[in-house]
TrEMBL record:
<feature type="region of interest" description="Disordered">
    <location>
        <begin position="511"/>
        <end position="536"/>
    </location>
</feature>
<feature type="domain" description="Major facilitator superfamily (MFS) profile">
    <location>
        <begin position="83"/>
        <end position="506"/>
    </location>
</feature>
<feature type="transmembrane region" description="Helical">
    <location>
        <begin position="205"/>
        <end position="228"/>
    </location>
</feature>
<keyword id="KW-0472">Membrane</keyword>
<comment type="similarity">
    <text>Belongs to the major facilitator superfamily.</text>
</comment>
<feature type="transmembrane region" description="Helical">
    <location>
        <begin position="484"/>
        <end position="503"/>
    </location>
</feature>
<keyword id="KW-1133">Transmembrane helix</keyword>
<keyword id="KW-0812">Transmembrane</keyword>
<protein>
    <submittedName>
        <fullName>SV2 related protein b</fullName>
    </submittedName>
</protein>
<keyword id="KW-0813">Transport</keyword>
<feature type="transmembrane region" description="Helical">
    <location>
        <begin position="117"/>
        <end position="137"/>
    </location>
</feature>
<dbReference type="GO" id="GO:0016020">
    <property type="term" value="C:membrane"/>
</dbReference>
<feature type="transmembrane region" description="Helical">
    <location>
        <begin position="315"/>
        <end position="334"/>
    </location>
</feature>
<feature type="transmembrane region" description="Helical">
    <location>
        <begin position="395"/>
        <end position="412"/>
    </location>
</feature>
<dbReference type="Pfam" id="PF00083">
    <property type="entry name" value="Sugar_tr"/>
</dbReference>
<dbReference type="InterPro" id="IPR005828">
    <property type="entry name" value="MFS_sugar_transport-like"/>
</dbReference>
<dbReference type="InterPro" id="IPR036259">
    <property type="entry name" value="MFS_trans_sf"/>
</dbReference>
Amino acid sequence: MRQSSAVRKLISCRNISRTVLQLRHLATLEFKRGNDPQFTDYSEICNTFTKVPLTFCLVPFTETFTVHDALESFGFGKFQWKMSFLTGLSWLGDAMEMMILSILGPQLLCEWRLSSYQVALLTSVVFAGMGIGAPVVGSLSDIYGRKAALMISSCWSLFYGLLSAFAPVYGWLLVLRGLVGFGLGGAPQSVTLHSEFLPEKSGGICIPLVAVFWALGSVFAALLAWVAVPALGWRWLLALSTAPMAVFVCFGFWLPESARFNLLAGKTEKAMATLAHIAKENGKPVPRGKLIAHKRKGGGRIKALFSPQYRRTTLLLWFIWFANAFAYYGIILLTTELLQAGHLCERTDNEQSCSLDCKYLTSADYKNLLWTSLAEFPGILVTILAIDRIGRKKSLALCFFMFCLSILPVYVCIGRTAVTICLFTARAFITAGFQVAIVYTPEVFPTENRALAMGTCSAMSKVGALITPFVAQVLLRTSVFGTLSLYCGFSLLGVIASLLLPIETLGRGMQESREAGEETTNTTGTSNAATQECTP
């Protein structure tokens, strides 16, 4: 058999073992086709020696590229700005639905003569629905696509959100708000879809910027309640709060399906069409060559989250999301409770709460609620400043710790203004922590299970959100000390869980499959020598 000059040069070494050793260290080089024909074909090397690094054997005879390569070449442009706006509308609608929970309670407490437990249940049923809906929509998103799952869940939320404004009695309102919650469980898939179109270096900044829409939703809900509830009542508040979701549903047809998902699902032509569309929008050329991808293995299966590679990460993230939501929604509910009741710490354990001593929210209460809602914006700023400087893990730990520190002064029965400042600061840091978790989760899991991971993490957050009304709206009426201690305790556990996360995703590109993630993990912190070998 006639050997190429490339093979003859390698065999001319003193012995075969030294040649093989040299080949092992060539894995970090990038071999490209050149004008010299003697360096264009290395296929004979893999047939000559028994063990050669895989990256050496897979030298392409034609140019190839991945979705990651394409997105990096396109950069952040017009397409990504449109994606940010549309997915942001989904977040805005979700935020408004969440914010009105803290406003609806005091209104119904008086108008329908509800007990504090019934008010807490009305809040918790929404989170229960979200806890069920999030993993269901997440699994469907990994099987049938991000866009389809997101649009169906958004239409669901819009429909039942409008119906809940016409609920005649408490029981009907409870059922309808639970169904709204089920649809809102799909909202995190907007982050999954958005993140899969971002260049590597843009994720740490662009995803928190989408959170600006969440902050706007909180502020709009407070303003809308301030204007609508005294004049029109809570039913108009529920109806008008669905407006952002209606806009998203109308314009959501523009959203393309994720190219990463299509490629992993074997829909290469659709993936290429999406990449061509992005290139046209951003004014950049499509990379030359063939689009390649990892083979899909069991997307949308929860057992993949408990593989040896991801088990620890999954469990820690579940707790982090739980603690984040427990603290975040707790602060939102505490704001109306503390500001409405004044010096709650002066209450005795024997003082009971009933419908006869209810208080409607005053103009001053709405004003203070608006001020604490504005804390979302500095929280986003904290995320942007910290996440790409100290990393995702340390940023999470810092946010949990500062949240705990911010609510400590409330223990000593400080005045109304001081309470507002403390709640503002605490909400800013827990908002930042939530955004860091939203950035980290899609980065650490592969495309084949990314949506399911986001869905299950979101479901765990709703468990925390489901529990927190009984702490912030029920336990608070008998023990301020116990209430604040629970929030401090869970935030400190969040610090520990954040630092125990096994993977730091700063500077780590998105993984398409578990195998790709294993390769990245194996090469992190070691030499660049290849760890896989090919055999004839």
